[in-house]
Amino acid sequence: MGYCPLLKLSFEPESKVRGVITKIFKENFGGAWSCWSSVDDETMCAWLKDFKAKYKWLEKDEANIKKSFNSRGSLALKNALFKVCNGEDMGDWIGEENLEQLKAQWQAETWQKISMINKKNRQSQVGHNVHSGGSITAREHVKKMRVELNREPTNFEVY
What we know:
Blueprint: E1 2-3, H1 14-27, H2 41-54, E2 55-56, H3 62-85, H4 96-107, H5 109-122, H6 138-149, H7 155-158
Parallel strand pairs: 1-2
């Protein structure tokens, strides 16, 4: 059991935390959810409870941990479903009936239109806001945040 890796990433790397969340939802995936926000409240509470069984944090940090759990979980689910949609993952963890519903949704004309629009938006084009500066170290990120906030940023704000 670890102490709040979401606030103190020096204890555990980000990828391990996201891996734990991914394992939790893959072991307990019981719907045709196409994104994190479509997961019902009962299931979301169960996933968070499983996460709480693996990590401990101070009560005062509960709201920030839940926010961080949802942020990391959303990204992990998006990536996992992308792999299923593109055939990189068979999606056995989704369940046969739910997988069929998701495939039907992904093939629907409205989904395809939105997918094409998003694909075009992600493509680098002159005159658009494109991130091309590369990655910076956490230390550099902290320095920039110190200037922006005019104070020392918290670990939660940094990570």
